[in-house]
């Protein structure tokens, strides 16, 4: 039987690391990219196709699922894994980010966030304790502590106050997780570092989290509009403030070049809606950079999206066909583009893991950037 | 090598027949249901999944494809089969029906129909000769003669005049098909009987078509709002007016009970958007009748859509999950519901073929109607 949670590093190359998280429901190869399954589905993909891209773990959104179909309902139906037919690990976010970005009439206090659903206007309360309860009802494997993600345009005092409240919420999350009842299959709990772009605040946050103790540590509050340069500058110090023997998860990131730069700086896990959302909108990621399949120059292009890609879309379908599907608004276009993008992201992660194992990550990163950023396609 | 076109009857039971159409690109088991792939895709389905439902042939729409991506473009890209990755037979309609129902500013003359595209307002002309050319450019296996489908609310004189023009167009279609150049893989040409609900007009139409000579014969001008009773009354005489040694294709039909009643009256082939379109809208067909998955009573129903169904959706997913996906507007809901409905239709066709082979079609039809129409689900 697999352990509840273990993280084994296989190799390190510079700050870049590769390893394996072992959990009851399966192993997660790191660096790992987690496709986002917001509403109990990775949009436009069957779960077996998600797995076939190479995904070891997917992400579910606490905020969305608690509103529809409802956490208690999911629990009555046997949990999220059975509900959506995904038997490998699921990480659930805490709802903290989306309750601030999506809900209506929210009221933030030390207790938590009171808000109205963006779907039907119903009134809800999300606290560290309720977030832990919801994630337990869903049957989450990796539970995220409830935090506040402050707006990026606030001053240092507000960022500091928010971070300190998030650390009190992290403590309450830990206690609620530990005393709230059995988690199915032995769940893990991750804390979330805050502090925006400030090294001292990030340090204080990391120390507070380490004091509480978590299975893994997320870097929150980035990818909220600060730009890649500021994000990388923060990642030059933030990962090393966190325990080296636990996985580090950069939330909500990102573009392929973001992932390479973050792995280079010691990040182990990622999630992002970008490959699926932009796939539905006609953007394909390739080793030669992104392309928009709606562009008229693809109308009679018989090549696959990416000559080097191993995905089912690239094995069969031409850019010309994908261009047609996108222009016609066909669901199959969303399906095939999503499958390509998610597969491309997993191929990128596999290439990074391989490069780290072989001690040639710097060369890989240089070569990747030349191809990916250098092309005008 | 398979013949260009052969139709072999294996069994007849009352008026119901079962057999096989053999063509270069594959065999078609009759009675056959052809999923509709309007814009070079059966909506929300990969072609291999369409085949896995049991479909031997799909339908493509000449009107849609000539406007987007364009017949000449499809030809330059290697034809419709390669474009959309379907290597089995494709039947294309003539465009006659949709040019009258979808286009704008159309002008009907003896020559053909001049119209503006509903997509971009561009001006086009569809004639028997152009319809044959478009279907040849697409690489169609079963080409339909260009006809006019008159509105159902017209008087007998107008219906008669329309039918007579359609018969002149059938003659022009035959000549253009025979002289217009090589059809890929050896295509077949079907004529279309018109005459609305009038037995004498249907007889005259059938005689005119037989005189011209076609590989198969369609029954057009039904399923346009006349209701099942009037349609069945027409099918009590129309199929037997057509050659018994050629397949009879009832265009645009229909609901499961329509199919059973039409097979009972001697029809061999069908196409309809109903299973795919209504699947996207949340309607599932089952042996116990249709159900709307959006209904609140399915919110915690852990049963499959249909306990007897063998499709991938019913093997894995609960009504509760499908209800959730539909309520959330998720693409996966459209995918799973479409796959179920298309599979259910093919299972129904297979059950009818089996019943005919075993000489118990009347019993099958009675039992089917009891289950399908008797339930209040």
Widest sheet: strand ordering of chain A: 4-14-13-12-11-10-6-5
- Proportion in helices of chain A: 40-55%
What is the mean pLDDT of chain A?
96
Q: Please summarize the sheet with the most strands of chain A.
A: 8 strands, parallel
Q: In summary, what is this structure?
A:
The structure is a homodimer of 377-residue chains. By secondary structure, chain A is an alpha/beta fold. Helix content of chain A is 43%, strand content 18%.
Give the helix/strand layout.
The structure is a homodimer.
Chain A: E1 5-13, E2 16-23, E3 26-30, E4 32-35, H1 47-52, E5 58-60, H2 62-67, H3 71-76, H4 80-84, E6 90-92, H5 96-101, E7 104-108, E8 113-116, E9 123-126, H6 128-138, E10 142-144, H7 156-179, E11 188-193, H8 199-212, E12 216-219, H9 228-235, H10 238-241, E13 248-250, H11 256-264, E14 269-272, H12 274-280, E15 283-284, E16 291-292, H13 312-316, H14 319-327, H15 331-357, H16 361-374
Parallel strand pairs in A: 4-14, 5-6, 6-10, 10-11, 11-12, 12-13, 13-14
Antiparallel strand pairs in A: 1-2, 2-3, 7-8, 8-9, 15-16
Helix pairs in contact in A: 6-7, 7-8, 11-15, 11-16, 12-15, 14-15, 15-16
What would the keywords be for this entry?
alpha/beta, 377 residues, 2 domains, homodimer, 43% helix, 18% strand, TIM Barrel
Molecular structure report:
Two copies of one chain form a homodimer. Chain A has 377 residues and is of the alpha/beta class. Chain A has two domains: 5-271, TIM Barrel (Alpha-Beta Barrel), CATH 3.20.20.105; 280-374, no CATH class. Chain A is 43% helix and 18% strand. Chain A contains 16 helices and 16 strands. Chain A has helices at 47-52, 62-67, 71-76, 80-84, 96-101, 128-138, 156-179, 199-212, 228-235, 238-241, 256-264, 274-280, 312-316, 319-327, 331-357, 361-374, and strands at 5-13, 16-23, 26-30, 32-35, 58-60, 90-92, 104-108, 113-116, 123-126, 142-144, 188-193, 216-219, 248-250, 269-272, 283-284, 291-292. In chain A, helix 11 runs antiparallel to helix 16 (361-374), helix 12 packs antiparallel against helix 15 and helix 15 (331-357) packs antiparallel against helix 16 (361-374). Chain A is globular and about 60 Å long. The termini of chain A are far apart. Chain A binds chain B through residues 39-41, 43-46, 68-69, 73, 76-78, 83-85, 280, 299-300, 302, 316-318, 320-321, 324-325, 327-328, 330-332, 334-336, and chain B through 39-41, 43-46, 68-69, 73, 76-78, 83-85, 280, 299-300, 302, 316-318, 320-321, 324-325, 327-328, 330-332, 334-336.
